[in-house]
UniProtKB/TrEMBL annotation, chain A:
Name under which the protein is recorded: 3-isopropylmalate dehydratase small subunit
GO process annotations (BP): L-leucine biosynthetic process
Entry keywords, A to Z: Amino-acid biosynthesis, Branched-chain amino acid biosynthesis, Leucine biosynthesis, Lyase
Superkingdom field: Bacteria
Biological role: Catalyzes the isomerization between 2-isopropylmalate and 3-isopropylmalate, via the formation of 2-isopropylmaleate.
InterPro entries, sorted: 3-IsopropMal_deHydase_ssu, Aconitase/3IPM_dehydase_swvl, AconitaseA/IPMdHydase_ssu_swvl, IPMI_Swivel, LeuD
Molecular-function GO terms, alphabetical: 3-isopropylmalate dehydratase activity
Organism, as annotated: Gemmobacter aquaticus
Organism lineage string: Bacteria, Pseudomonadati, Pseudomonadota, Alphaproteobacteria, Rhodobacterales
UniProtKB/TrEMBL annotation, chain B:
EC number: 4.2.1.33
InterPro entries hit by this protein: 3-IsopropMal_deHydase_lsu (IPR004430), Acnase/IPM_dHydase_lsu_aba_1/3 (IPR015931), Acoase/IPM_deHydtase_lsu_aba (IPR001030), Aconitase_4Fe-4S_BS (IPR018136), Aconitase_4Fe-4S_dom (IPR036008), IPM_dehydratase_rel_enz (IPR050067), IPMI_cat (IPR033941)
Gene Ontology biological process terms from the UniProt entry: L-leucine biosynthetic process
Domain called Aconitase/3-isopropylmalate dehydratase large subunit alpha/beta/alpha: residue spans: 9-459
Role of this protein: Catalyzes the isomerization between 2-isopropylmalate and 3-isopropylmalate, via the formation of 2-isopropylmaleate.
GO molecular function: 3-isopropylmalate dehydratase activity; 4 iron, 4 sulfur cluster binding; metal ion binding
Known cofactor(s): [4Fe-4S] cluster
Enzyme class: lyase
Name of one Pfam family that matches: Aconitase
Protein family according to the UniProt entry: Belongs to the aconitase/IPM isomerase family. LeuC type 1 subfamily.
Protein name in UniProt: 3-isopropylmalate dehydratase large subunit
Length: 201, 472
């Protein structure tokens, strides 16, 4: 997993609420057995017509957002299915951070496993950043994970909360499985205890 | 003397392997269900790292999302990508030695129907699967939730998950349901009342007389859609109905183990005075048969209602409603019962169990579907299918003009050949009405199996209670 420290990049405004994982990556692209290559189909049905032509109005088809690294989104981003293809597609496109007032639980978890930082901010802060993202052009937003701040292109800064363990893993690009296997003896002893307490499991 | 605990607290406490200072826990997983779409990258990860599946005996795989629901699928799946995924699951299941129900096995079906049916899902367990509708298993008083593929790999390798505890939410349905109102109407009404983010950060415990009065099938329908309400999981405390359902199933405990299990299961309830961070109460008698009008499961209205206007909402929902109405091809003020449909889908992990088929067949008996209607029933498992055939339900569906399919996820998510064409409008017993969910440009109205059957006959969304008056 790539480390996440600080990014300064283009933020795409997506004010729609309840953007679901079927929108982020429609089901026909879940048939891959790999993690990579999904970026071209990110938001496929919003981004392309049925015959594959780009829909010019869609934000990621416009300059400068074609190179967006951040999305500022409406409430409850990532609701719906557990498909990790959603963060894979975002990452493959180049998105490293999504900012919203709220995220669906599974999507939120999945982001951290893939080096994407989901940031929850109050409505007022998201409103300011949404307007900033809409500026386009040379506007660049900055996300600093170490300092836990997001700054708009004109320097308005908001602090955000992040789980300390997840922050540590993102900053260092750590893989969960390796970390957990260090606790193998705790798992062994749990299993021995459980075998006595709940032998039918 | 410990403080009063909720059912969720109790299951959680019994599964903590390790707790870090910041509250992050390593939680032990009792059952890991696996399907073909969200697992290939996880198994590949194991191979690359030279790791094994830690507890293959607690891991159960079944292909469901991709598989066609027409005959011949056990010898060849035409769609190449689907075939590769199903073949990959087949190989992974054999290479890693996990429990497996291939397409050719009569026990194959939707993973969330197969788990309970085979007795894998038991009260007090932790159950995960790379699928958001894992919440279904909460009906047994199991802590069950969906996970992403990285977490699938984590569970395969370690039989644990890194978790932070959610908050407790109580959803109480008081009183009894009125005739024609079902578990599906409960679960949709709760989402309509709380919104699709209303449960975010919570584990819901459903309780109250109307929940107690539901069968296990109905309880599974309620818990299944906890995720549509944003919750990590939905739970219902086990009772005699739960034990009755489990007893004798292939992987249920037997003999002395059954007695031991039973005495443990009887401790699985929320203690008097336990704290809930959020409480929602609905009166059972106030719940009507409902349908969705929009492209979010929170867009729920009683069938007697009319299509709302974007201005009826506030904030970001105004634009979302405008977009929904345009996508759905509906106008504000239109009566819901005037909405014509051309497709009916009965099935899915929400409503693909035997009781759902019985409810639909009761409406369809001796009737024909409307001219031009395409209607299909997709049983949730091969065993549900066999039972429905034995009970004569299959013949009722066939006589009414329904297609009688093989088990799978089918048109719930259109990853297989069962899809809507652009502009087609479907009355569906599944769980999501998102844009494109059932096929690009397809329009979905979520409802109960009885309501879906009624719509198949009339050709438009229909209040099932009128049908019942007619039948009486």
């Amino acid at each position: 997993m790539d480390k996440f420290t600080t990014i300064t990049g283009i933020a795409a405004p997506m004010p729609l609420v309840n953007i679901d994982t079927d929108m982020i990556i429609p089901k026909q692209f879940l048939k891959t057995i790999q993690r990579s290559g999904l970026g071209k189909n990110l938001f496929d049905e919003m981004r392309y017509t049925q015959d594959g032509a780009e829909i010019p109005d869609f934000v990621l088809n416009r300059e400068p957002y074609r190179k967006a690294e951040i999305i500022v989104a409406g409430d409850n981003f990532g609701c719906g299915s557990s498909r990790e293809h959603a963060p894979w597609a975002l990452l493959d496109f180049g998105i490293r951070c999504v900012i919203s007032t709220s995220f669906a639980d599974i999507f939120f978890n999945n982001c951290f496993k893939n080096g994407i930082l989901p940031i929850v901010l109050p409505q007022e802060a998201v409103d300011v950043l949404m307007e900033d993202a809409k500026k386009g052009g040379n506007a660049r937003m900055t996300v600093d994970l170490e300092a836990q701040t997001v700054s708009s292109s004109d320097g308005v800064t908001f602090a955000f909360e992040v789980d300390p363990f997840r922050k540590h893993c993102l900053l260092n690009g750590l893989d969960d499985v390796g970390l957990t296997l260090e606790k193998a003896s705790a798992i062994d002893s749990f299993e021995s205890r459980a075998k006595v307490l709940r032998p039918w499991v | 003397m410990t403080a009063p605990r909720t059912l969720y607290d109790k299951i959680w406490d019994d599964h903590v392997v390790h707790q870090a200072d910041d509250g992050t826990c390593l939680l032990y997983i009792d059952r890991h269900l696996v399907h073909e779409v969200t697992s290939p990258q996880a198994f590949e990860g194991l191979r690359t790292a030279g790791r094994k599946v830690r507890a293959p005996e607690k891991t159960i795989a079944v292909p469901d999302h991709n598989v066609p629901t027409t005959p011949g699928r056990d010898t060849f799946i035409e769609n190449e990508e689907s075939r590769i995924q199903v073949d990959a699951l087949d190989k992974n299941a054999r290479d890693f030695g996990i429990n497996y129900y291939p397409v050719s096995d009569i026990r194959q079906g939707i993973v969330h129907i197969v788990g309970p049916e085979q007795g894998w899902t038991l009260p007090g367990m932790t159950v995960v699967c790379g699928d958001s509708h894992t919440a279904t298993h909460g009906a047994f008083g199991a802590l069950a939730h969906g996970i992403g593929t990285s977490e699938v790999e984590h569970v395969l390798a370690t039989q644990t998950l890194i978790q932070k505890k959610s908050k407790n939410m109580k959803v109480e349905i008081t009183g009894s349901l009125r005739p024609g109102v079902t578990a599906k109407d409960i679960t949709l009404s709760v989402i309509g009342a709380t919104g699709t983010a209303g449960g975010t950060g919570y584990v819901i415990e459903y309780c109250g007389q109307a929940i107690r009065e539901l069968s296990m099938e109905g309880r599974m329908t309620v818990c299944n859609m906890a995720i549509e309400g944003g919750a990590r999981a939905g739970l219902i405390a086990p009772d005699e109905k739960t034990y009755e359902y489990i007893k004798g199933r292939p992987h249920a405990p037997k003999g002395a183990a059954w007695e031991a299990a039973l005495s443990y299961w009887k401790t699985l309830f929320t203690d008097e005075g336990a704290h809930f961070d959020k409480v929602v109460t609905l009166k059972g008698e106030d719940i009507a048969p409902v349908v969705t009008w929009g492209t979010s499961p929170e867009d729920v209205l009683p069938i007697t209602g009319t299509v709302p206007a974007p201005e009826d909402f506030t904030g970001g929902k105004v634009e979302a409603a405008r977009r929904s109405l345009e996508y759905m091809g509906l106008t504000a003020g239109q009566k819901l019962t005037d909405i014509k449909i051309d497709t009916v889908f009965i099935g899915s992990c929400t409503n693909g169990r035997i009781e759902d088929l019985r409810a639909a067949a009761a409406i369809l008996k001796g009737k024909k579907i409307a001219p031009g209607m395409r209607a299909m029933v997709v049983p949730g498992s091969g065993l549900v299918r066999a039972q429905a055939e034995e009970e004569g339900l299959a013949q009722i569906f066939i006589d009414a003009g329904f297609e009688w399919r093989l088990a799978g996820c089918s048109m719930c998510l259109a990853m297989n050949p069962d899809q809507l064409a652009p502009g087609e409008r479907c009355a569906a017993t599944s769980n999501r009405n998102f844009e494109g969910r059932q096929g690009r440009g397809g329009r979905t109205h979520l409802l109960s199996p009885a309501m879906a059957a009624a719509a198949a006959v009339t050709g438009h969304l229909t209040d099932v209670r009128e049908f019942m008056a007619e039948m009486a």
